[in-house]
Amino acid sequence: IKIFNEPIEVKITEWNTGGLLSRIE
What we know:
The protein has one domain (1-25). Helix content is 92%, strand content 0%. It has one helix and no strands.
């Protein structure tokens, strides 16, 4: 579960960061 959870969290964090940056820009 941890192995699966880590990449999923990283992808969500990257997606959220990209979405926030896109909104700010």
